[in-house]
Specification:
There is one protein chain. By secondary structure, this protein is of the alpha+beta class. The protein has 3 domains: 1-31, no CATH class; 38-65; 77-178, Rieske [2Fe-2S] iron-sulphur domain (Rieske Iron-sulfur Protein). It contains 1 helix and 10 strands, in the order αββββββββββ. The strands form 2 sheets. Strands 1-10-9-4-3-2 form a 6-stranded antiparallel beta sheet, with no helix packed on it. It has a 4-stranded antiparallel beta sheet with strand order 5-6-7-8, with no helix packed on it. The longest helix is centred in the N-terminal third of the chain and has 25 residues, at 41-65. 17% of the residues are buried.
Length: 180
């Protein structure tokens, strides 16, 4: 094939080729493309830098949420009279809502602990195993520490949410739930 035009990158009468260094960049692109001018490299770079900046801001905001003080949910709710619960025993109750199961443990004569009764793995019920002295989720063998609510074994990813307790005239009250 020969090109009869001047300035097309080749010498008149010779085959048009981009394999020679002199005519390589002088060959016009063989297709017409009207949309070629719609997006430039500079616009793509601006978009990429803007998206990176937005992701950084969102990540920093999420990380900043962890610095907020611990939140508590719920209102004061009477549970049981302290004298009605023996050391090492447990009392099941509902808190903060009527459908939310919770567990109250008497750890010693003066120490009580209360936790949400839902396992942090798949929300199965958590039970007290008095023989072993542990909180257990039978669904996937999750084991929790009765002192802290922390995970001792199994698949649960977080400790049990702790329920704040307050004693008023011998009656124990649940005053709020801390997210795990």
């Amino acid at each position: 094939m020969t090109d009869e035009r001047e300035g097309a990158g080749g010498v008149e009468g010779e085959p048009l080729s981009n394999h020679t260094s002199a005519g390589r960049w002088g060959v016009p692109f063989p297709y017409e493309w009207d949309a070629d001018d719609l997006v430039s490299r500079r616009q793509v770079l601006r978009w990429a830098v803007g998206a990176s900046g937005a992701l950084f801001v969102v990540t920093a905001g999420i990380a900043g949420l962890s610095l907020l003080p611990e939140r508590r949910f719920g209102t004061a709710h009477p549970i049981i009279h302290a004298r009605d619960l023996a050391v090492g025993d447990v009392h099941y109750f509902t808190y903060p809502g009527r459908a939310d199961q919770a567990i109250l443990l008497r750890l010693s004569e003066r120490r009580f602990a209360a936790y949400s009764g839902k396992c942090t793995h798949l929300s199965c019920a958590v039970y007290w195993e008095k023989e072993r002295g542990l909180l257990r989720c039978p669904c996937h063998e999750g084991i929790f520490d009765p002192e802290t609510g922390g995970v001792l074994a199994g698949p649960p990813p977080r400790p049990l949410p702790k329920i704040a307790l307050e004693e008023r005239d011998g009656v124990l009250y649940a005053t709020g739930e801390s997210p795990s």
